[in-house]
Amino acid sequence: MPEHMSRVQLFTLTQPVYSVDNDEKTGASLEFLVPKDLADGFVNNKRECYKFRFLKLFDQAAKQEEIFENIAKPVADSVLAGYNGTIFAYGQTGSGKTFTITGGAERYSDRGIIPRTLSYLYECFTQDSSMVYTTHVSYLEIYNEIGYDLLDSRHEGSRLEDLPKVVIMEDPDQNIHLRNLSLQQSANEEEALNLLFLGDTNRMIAETPMNQASTRSHCIFTVHLCRREPGSATLRRSKLHLVDLAGSDRVSKTGLNGQLLTEAKYINLSLHYLEQVIIALSEKNRSHIPYRNSMLTSVLRDSLGGNCMTTMIATMAVDKRNLDESISTCRFAQRVSLIKNEAILNEELDPALLIARLKREVQSLKEDLAMVTGEQRDDQLTVEEIQMLEELVKAFLNDSDPDVTLSLGPDMRKIQFCFSLLKVIYLHDGQASPAATVREAVIQDSNHSAVEMTRLKEMMAQRDNEIRLDLFLSGPQLSMGKQEAFKTFIRDHEDLLTIEDNKKQLKQRSAEARGIWEKQNEAKNRISKLSQQIYKSTIDRLKALATEIEHLQLLSERAKVKIQKDFQKWWSQEASSAQVTDLHFLYLSITNQTFYSGCVQNGKGMYADTVKLHYTHVHFRALSTTKLSNSSIPLTGDQQADADILAFIRARENLLNRTGNTHTHTHTHTHTLGMRMHTHAHTRTRRKK
Ligand SMILES: Nc1ncnc2c1ncn2[C@@H]1O[C@H](COP(=O)(O)OP(=O)(O)OP(=O)(O)O)[C@@H](O)[C@H]1O
Question: The dihedral of CA 12, 15, 17, 22: what is its sign?
Fold first, then answer.
């Protein structure tokens, strides 16, 4: 929104529907203005004005980047610090929940909170070398009060009902555990994104025209984070839930029946329980919070009250038709903003790490004792001992943990050997090569040193010559009388000039060699510095491009699956209409309903090159071919192929007739008037005592 227009009014044909004021000191306010003549049939026809306050309001022009920066980043930061975090999107069907949480499927810039948060988290991990982070991802779908694991690879070949159900278990400390929900480790952004797309595609595959999963189910994408200081036994675990709730449309309005009514009832009930929990949390001195009433509230138990920073985004399609839904969404969001949490750091001690640390302490104390009591040895190290020390130094250098120590015991021979080894490695190209083994490093070093050794030998020989000449000239080994005689002798000797000339030249060459060597060293250092600079400036861009390429590839893979599904739906519809109008096409057989095969390979996700898309083959069997042969379309003579060709032509004609043979495109979405609101529980943080 342009700055000079901080107050915005959107108009229906003649009357304003709502106005936004983002400039208020306490946050932002949204006011619905219901004209008297429109009030009939709305939530409360006695009122004409409904005003709500939120932390911030985003209109339809808001960019995904803005939503991430304002809403998701603060929550991600608190999760990085060790607190739990939840962002959930609430709103009526089609108002932009999935768009906000996951993102649009067309453009990279449309990616939503999940991919942006993942990117941000992994970026933070790489920048913070003082901590060791491990991440796992889970993706849960709740449909009709039953939980399913969206990362279960069996999704491709099974119906939703046949998949294992996620079961809630509670331990004696009332902690919730979810059986049959997989936690998949994701070492980097790419792996986490693959898991997100795997889950989203599984969600899409499970959809049938009767079960539009994205509309009728709740989805919870969770990042489980574990953070510890290197060498420390204290772990900090935190969770980030990113929740795409089912459409909040009220049953009374939807006028449904059958399966859709059942679904709507489940959704309304679970959102009702969610609301109850929220109300209970916002009431002071309330001891019982009814989490157990629904699966959604049970799963989100540690993410709504208690130890969590909860943020809610309410999405609305703010046009006249959706006014009652929008007001009801606002009321819900308003109640959520009343929750006050006391977030506590999730610190715990890892017993295995604690034992390892204590063992190291005992060992180090033993070594100190040996040093103090002077237990020293002076025999030579054996070959085995040397090999063992080489391995130890290698492990020490390869360990990325900056706090790692090299435990050698109180044996000075070992300590000295390791120091010498480290020096050799250090001198090898000025730095240790963690990739190469220590032995390799030593060998490489000796190769490298060979040249240097030759040079030094030459210099030494040169010096020796000089010295010898000096000795020769001064003749210190001679007696005094002889020395005098020798001096007189060589003064007139014919070779004296040559000798002195050689001496001068040797000095010059020596100085020249030293100069060249220094220059070469300088050049080497400059090259190394330059290449480091170039590497640094290009690597960031390359990383960003790689992520973008990966994301776009995943988007296009998902689009492929969607097109395939849409085609199948369209083809089935056309086939059934052809059945009605043309007795020549009697039945439809679907021979293969498998969409994917060979999904997850080496944890790479389902989009690796090896993935094959099995198209659904739809066969029309024509009982009579009379009509086929009369057709003006060139046919193949093969009964089944010809039936397919004619069915396709018929379907296409139907489509063209319907669209008036033009390219008119009717767009029915109301999101052009969409709005996203941000509100979250006011969280005071304090450390666990
Ligand atoms: N801010 C936006 N900018 C552009 N397109 C949007 C925006 N919000 C939503 N859309 C589009 O509107 C359509 C409906 O949005 P979306 O699927 O996110 O709604 P939803 O609330 O998740 O619906 P459902 O409850 O059915 O899952 C989608 O095609 C989506 O791409």
Answer: positive
248-265 pLDDT, tens digit each:
776 555 455 566 667 777
Residue segments in the chain with a per-residue pLDDT below the cut of 50: 1-14, 39, 44, 209-210, 254, 430, 432-447, 449-450, 467, 469, 471, 473-475, 579-631, 661-673, 680-689
Ligand 1 pocket check: which of 60, 93, 99, 248 to mutate, most ligand atoms within 8 Å of Cβ?
99
Atom of ligand 1 nearest to the CA of 62: 1
- Exposure letters 285-303 (e unless 16+ CB within 10 A, then b): eeeebebeebbbbbbbbbb
Pocket perturbation via mutation, ligand 1, pick of 671, 672, 676, 677 by most ligand atoms within 8 A of CB: 671
582 phi and psi angles, rounded to 5 deg: -135, 110
- Dihedral sign, Cα of residue 449, residue 455, residue 461, residue 467: negative
- Residue 630's pLDDT is 43
Q: What's the gap in Å between 239 CA and the centre of ligand 1? A: 26
Q: CB-based burial of residue 423 (10 Å sphere; 0-12 exposed, 13-18 middle, 19+ buried)?
A: exposed
pLDDT at 143: 87
Question: Which residues touch 127 (CB under 8 Å, ≥6 apart)?
Answer: none
Q: What is the pLDDT of residues 45-76, one digit of tens each?
A: 555 788 888 888 888 888 999 999 999 999 99
Q: Is 96 annotated as a binding residue?
A: yes
- C-alpha triplet 132, 135, 141: angle, nearest 5°: 165
Ligand 1 center from residue 670 Cα (angstroms)? 9
Q: Nearest C-alpha to atom 7 of ligand 1 is from which residue? A: 96
Residues with CB under 6 A from ligand 1: 60, 91, 93-99, 104, 214-215, 247, 315, 669, 671, 674
| Torsions phi, psi for 9 (to 5 deg) | -125, 130
d(CA 287, CA 422): 62
Residue nearest atom 26 in ligand 1 by C-alpha distance: 215
91 annotated ligand-binding residue = yes
Pairing, β 84-91 against β 56-59: unpaired
**672 DSSP assignment:** G
Distance 429 CA to ligand 1 centre (A): 57
Those residues whose C-beta lies under 8 Å from the C-beta of residue 356, and which sit 6 or more positions away, are 233
Nearest of 63, 52, 59 to residue 28 by alpha carbon = 52
pTM of the model: 0.60
The interface predicted TM-score of the complex, written ipTM, equals 0.97
Per-domain residue ranges of the chain: 1-56, 63-349, 547-664
Cα(367)–Cα(361) distance, integer angstroms: 10
Among the listed residues 654, 631, 632, the one whose alpha carbon sits nearest the alpha carbon of residue 576: 654
Query: CATH classification of 63-349 is 3.40.850.10, yes or no?
Result: yes
| Beta strand pairing call for 308-317 and 84-91 | parallel
Please tell me whether 27 is known to bind a ligand: no
Instruction: Identify the pLDDT of residue 242.
Output: 96
Any known ligand binding at 97? yes
- Calpha distance 317→323 (Å, rounded): 8
